[in-house]
Specification:
Chain A is an alpha+beta fold. Chain A has five helices and six strands. In chain A, α2 packs across α3. Chain A is extended. About 9% of the residues of chain A have low confidence. Chain B is of the alpha+beta class. In chain B, strands 7-6-5-10-9-8 form a six-stranded antiparallel sheet, sandwiched between helices. Chain B is globular. The chains are: A alpha+beta, B alpha+beta.
């Protein structure tokens, strides 16, 4: 197998991967991978990458009660799809409640999640690249029609 | 995995993984519609008012919606690749994404997820390995960027940004609207700081915003009209192209190469 970036032969190696979960890090050991002899880039076969994704997806989809209660600026920026600077600006103008622990800001996950997902919409929509409220009524109707078709297609798969 | 990334795999890495998984050669033009077909992602066209492309997803069923009113039909390929980015990238598990053509075409977004989807799309349509070989023997110029954009069926802006990210030439780009430099980007070896704000009177770009017309021929201009450098006796080569559908001008700025100056080129850095 050759590296897709530098076209050099890759070695088969056993490696580990770290995934962040709030303030915690989860390490997955014993992963079969390929490492480029030249650029040291490590790649996984799609099935291994998918397995890693599934494990970390399991973490992020766990119930809020199981998640770390305190999150940092990076996590908030990820959740809100904004830059870290915007998070700092939001602290400054009072839109975000935050506590400084040492030199680092910490946030209550519950506060942030309430901010981005109004309870009545939580089951339906999550934060999008462009807010749904920016769309016209006609756009929303068209999209709802397509979502309904997708729902039917998905239900059809289960039968 | 909303908000959680697997460390070490970049959006570009995921695009390469997808191409490998699909058994597709890393040679443009790469067809994102083929990927959709193979992954059972439907493509739909609807006359939307406030979005140009969207990804809709419920469970394992997904659809990419393109705005049928969109006047930039030729840009659909990048839009489809961009939405595929939202589909594949971890942390992009939201049910719906609505993206505007400006977000997609400018390939620069302050929104992290939009930026990642653009990085994914650019790599999918312009694989780094292929692109490095393609530009290796050429000096970066507007005409080269145009040729590569045609070969990859990508926008000039997306192509220019991808090229300067990986090239070893000293090159910068500036994107201007209404006489204002909106954003700039530069290669690693371009050591000057490009400035934003009003376009300088001595640039041909100013002419475009004043008269609606200008020459695309390369022109030597003082370094300081595009950078924060005060150097009075240094110059840049300025080449610009207008993009009337965006009311914008893309400018490619290169540092003239002296023959004595080649020592900085380092093959090992590839």
């Amino acid at each position: 197998m050759k590296c897709v970036l530098c076209d050099t032969e890759m070695d088969s190696v056993i490696t580990s991967f770290q995934s962040k979960w709030g303030d915690y890090e989860v390490t997955i050991d014993g992963l079969k991978a390929y490492q480029c002899k030249q650029c040291q880039r490590v790649v996984f076969q799609p099935e291994v990458a998918r397995m890693i994704q599934n494990i970390t997806a399991g973490l992020s989809e766990s119930q809020p009660v199981n998640k770390p209660d305190l999150i940092n600026v990076d996590d908030v920026a990820d959740l809100l799809s904004v830059s870290n600077q915007t998070v700092y600006n939001m602290i400054k103008d009072g839109r975000l409640k935050a506590t400084k622990i040492g030199r680092e800001w910490r946030f209550l996950r519950e506060h942030i999640e309430k901010l981005i997902i109004p309870e009545e919409e939580a089951a339906t929509f999550s934060l999008a690249a462009r807010s749904k409220k920016d769309l016209s009524a006609r756009d929303k109707a068209i999209i709802e029609k397509h979502l309904e078709n997708l729902r039917r297609r998905e239900e059809g798969k289960g039968k | 995995m909303n908000g959680y990334r697997i460390q070490g795999i970049t959006p570009e890495g995921y695009a390469n993984l997808l191409l490998q998984e699909m058994g597709m050669a890393l040679i443009p033009p790469i067809d994102p519609y083929y990927i959709c077909t193979m992954q059972h992602i439907q493509i739909a066209y609807e006359p939307l008012d406030h979005a140009d492309a969207a990804l809709l997803r419920i469970g394992s069923s997904a659809e990419i919606m393109l705005n049928s009113n969109n006047q930039y039909r030729s840009r659909d390929r990048f839009s489809v690749a961009h939405e595929l980015g939202h589909y594949y990238l971890p942390g992009h598990s939201d049910m719906e994404y609505y993206c505007t053509i400006k977000e997609i075409l400018q390939y620069r977004s302050s929104n992290k997820k939009e930026h990642e989807a653009n990085q994914f799309a650019a790599e999918l349509l312009m694989p780094t390995l292929w692109l490095k070989n393609r530009i290796k023997a050429s000096d970066i110029s507007l005409s080269l960027i145009k040729k590569i954009a045609e070969e990859c069926h990508t926008s000039l802006t997306a192509t220019a940004i991808k090229i300067i990210k990986i090239c070893r030439d000293r090159v910068g780009i500036a994107y201007s609207e209404n006489g204002i430099i909106k954003w700039t980007a530069k290669s690693k070896s371009f050591s000057y700081e490009l400035r934003e704000g009003q376009v300088d009177e001595r640039s041909r770009v100013k002419e475009f915003f004043q008269t609606g017309n200008f020459s695309e021929e390369p022109m030597q201009v003082p370094l300081f009209i595009w950078t924060s450098s005060p150097g009075l006796h240094e110059f840049l080569i300025e080449e610009s192209i207008s993009m009337p559908y965006l009311g914008a001008v893309l400018t490619v700025l290169t540092v003239p190469v002296d023959e004595d100056d080649d020592a900085w080129l380092d093959e090992d850095s590839w």
